[in-house]
Design a protein that fits this description.
Elements: E1 2-6, H1 11-22, E2 26-30, E3 47-50, H2 71-85, E4 90-96, H3 108-116, H4 119-133, E5 139-145, E6 147-149, E7 166-168, H5 169-182, E8 188-192
């Protein structure tokens, strides 16, 4: 399968590119930093994976958000218009746990942490995206990742969400690719955890 990948130079996106290529798929990637990926032949896409995120000054929970509040929803809406015009209707969008109906399933400590730090601004941005994607005619899936972990995978039985839940970027990448390629969870939002 040939996919379009937006945000391909980000921390998780680089793993998505590796996962796509390791499975024999091809991709067209839109990157912020041109030198982040090497160019390849251009092909027409069958689906899109969007891993854009709100831009913050650093990875700290107290870091100021640099991107405008509507960055994700406006970017996604523009991409969906272009995709629809090109006859591509499948899009998988990386989001975050705690957005939309997943907020109710978060432990109270996670809610307090997310609500009292600058993470709340990223949640608001993802919340707008969550509402916006549902207004499109796309075959969308929202993949809501819990806390991203850059290291070894931890096991989880997938029942509920805990304060300690995390997901490796490799696991998120595999999930995004699988959902896009196999057409899973169409017009649904799912929480991704190890």
């Amino acid at each position: 399968m040939h996919l379009l990948l937006l945000g391909a130079s980000g921390r998780t996106s680089q793993h998505v590119v590796s996962e796509l290529l390791s499975q024999g798929h091809t991709a067209v990637a839109l990157v912020h930093i041109r030198s982040a990926l090497s160019a390849a032949l251009s092909l027409s896409s069958s689906a899109a994976i969007i891993t854009l995120n709100a831009v913050c000054k650093s990875d700290s929970p107290s870091a100021a958000q640099l991107s405008p509040p509507r960055f994700l929803v406006d970017s996604c809406a523009n991409v969906c218009k272009v995709l629809e015009h090109a006859g591509i209707h499948r899009v998988v969008v990386m989001s975050t746990a705690g957005v939309g109906d997943s907020w109710a399933k978060l432990p109270w400590l996670s809610k307090a942490f997310m609500g009292l730090t600058n993470i709340k601004y990223a949640l608001e941005c993802h919340g707008l995206l969550d509402k916006g994607i549902r207004l499109t005619k796309m075959d969308w899936t929202l993949a809501r990742a819990v806390k991203l972990q850059f290291g070894d995978q931890k096991q989880n039985d997938g029942v509920g969400m805990r304060v300690t839940d995390s997901v490796t970027v490799d696991s998120v990448a595999r999930s995004l690719v699988k959902v896009a390629v196999e057409g899973l969870f169409v017009q649904n939002a799912v929480v991704v955890t190890n």
